[in-house]
Design goal:
By secondary structure, the protein is of the alpha+beta class. Helices cover 26% and strands 30% of the residues. It is built from 9 helices and 23 strands. It has helices spanning 2-29, 69-74, 81-87, 101-107, 163-175, 326-334, 360-378, 387-396, 398-406, and strands spanning 37-40, 47-53, 56-61, 66-67, 93-94, 97-98, 109-113, 143-147, 151-155, 182-187, 199-203, 208-214, 217-223, 231-236, 244-250, 255-259, 265-268, 279-284, 288-294, 298-305, 311-318, 337-340, 352-355. The radius of gyration is 29 Å and the shape is flat. The protein starts with a helix and ends in a 7-residue tail after the last helix.
């Protein structure tokens, strides 16, 4: 029993060391690389970059020219409009187009996506708003819906199912060919938006539908998809220009937009995007869409025309991965792996094991096993009782070496 208790303590210590030792190492030695904030200048037709180097802010373009903060903001008038209006330097026209503040505000949009959004808890019940209530602001409904074998509305006050409403909406979906249950339900379940366009639904057959409520009645539209096209993530938008409903990421990592009313799918020619491990930023203005894809060691910015979504220019910058830096190579030689309780690619807590690159850690493990073996020989300990300890050190390296020496066999003899 004492031996079993020691084995448990050793294993717990190995896990604890695998979590905290790598964390402490990176806290001491990591030199994080911050990707620049890059936008396309509609006045100079160059990419403007804001760099943060250890707290020092610099401004430059992709041609190598440096700027002051004021000069930088003047070359991005559609991003820093408010500041230019205050300073009196906002241009009246850009590329021959008169600047109308209403049209500028209407065309402006922002979208952010992080890889962790792909793996996060999803709400079980969602509100369905009245899309044409005639009110100035949206109001929260009294019930919430779910879509399993049918669409059900549950009253929040008494937890009872509204059978009439549930049958009405379920029938509307069924008539359009919806195959229950829903795989994805994507929308903006908040009243903090300018208007409501309901939800985009993916059914169990990977068909795409648009659902909303108009004057208490269901509105359902089936979106025609090319054969074999499947979406693994959909994010609805709240853009004032109402050009499209959502950004959609397909299983082959392509980015689509779904136009409003016509339900036309448009593919954005963006390369190198994988929602599992990349972050995405999209800024829209009166002239362009700036689509920035950031991975572990690269930033790529593509610029598309506002009107027809055709690519006009692109920018990219690469840097070393953390594992390729000197600190990363030393880490890979010291530690065979690291164990994290959270992940930048998930919102769920858990154990996330990351093996070190290469095999230099094997030499460290062998050195530690040799040291431990010689230590046991010097003490004239019976080696047949130390097989477990030697195996632990061989497999887990420095984590196991600390554990077996912290809880030695003699402690329980």
């Amino acid at each position: 029993m004492e031996r079993l208790s020691r084995y448990i303590l050793v294993l717990v210590t190995v896990i604890t060391c695998a979590v905290f030792l790598p964390q402490m190492y990176w806290m001491a030695f990591e030199k994080p690389v911050r990707a620049p904030f890059v936008l396309y200048s509609c006045t100079d037709d160059v990419f403007m970059a804001l760099n943060n180097n250890n707290g020092e802010i610099t401004f430059e373009d992709n041609l190598g020219n440096s700027y002051t903060r004021e000069q930088y903001e003047q070359r991005l008038p559609l991003m820093y409009t408010r500041q230019l209006l205050v300073s009196g330097t906002m241009p009246d026209t850009i590329k021959g187009v008169a600047i109308d503040m209403h049209e500028l505000s209407k065309a402006k949009s922002k979208f952010r996506f992080k890889s962790e959004y792909m793996n996060r808890p999803q709400p079980v019940l969602l509100p369905l708003f009245e899309s044409e209530s005639g009110r100035a602001t949206l109001e929260m409904p009294d019930d919430y819906f779910r879509i399993n074998w049918r669409m059900e509305f549950i009253n929040a006050a008494n937890n009872r199912i509204d059978e009439k409403k549930s049958r009405l909406f379920s029938a509307a979906l069924f008539k359009k060919g919806f195959d229950f249950p829903a795989k994805q339900i994507s929308g903006l379940p908040t009243i903090r938006k300018a208007y409501d366009e309901g939800y985009l639904l993916v059914d169990s057959s990977n068909q795409l539908f648009h659902l909303k409520m108009i004057n208490g009645n269901p509105y359902v539209a089936k979106v025609s998809l090319p054969d074999g096209l499947k979406f693994k993530y959909i994010s609805c938008t709240d853009n004032k220009d109402r050009k499209f409903y959502a950004y959609l990421f397909s299983e082959d990592n392509s980015i689509y937009i779904l136009t409003q009313d016509e339900y036309k799918l448009i593919k954005l020619p963006v390369e190198g995007f994988n929602p599992e491990n990349c972050n995405l930023r999209i800024f829209g203005d009166l002239f362009h869409y700036n689509v920035a894809v950031e991975s572990e060691n690269k930033l790529k910015v593509d610029v598309f025309n506002y009107s027809d979504y055709k690519k006009t220019d692109s920018y990219s910058k690469c840097w070393q991965k953390r594992s390729e830096q000197p600190e990363g190579r030393v880490f890979a030689a010291l530690f065979p792996a690291r164990l994290e309780l959270s992940s930048q690619y998930s919102r769920f807590a858990g154990f996330y094991l990351h093996l070190s690159d290469g095999f230099w850690w094997l030499f460290t493990n062998l050195i530690l096993v040799t040291i431990h073996f010689l230590f046991l020989k010097r003490k004239k300990t019976r080696l047949n009782r130390q097989i477990f300890d030697l195996m632990v050190v061989t497999i887990s390296g420095i984590f196991g070496y600390i554990a077996v020496n912290l809880f030695q066999n003699k402690f329980f003899d």
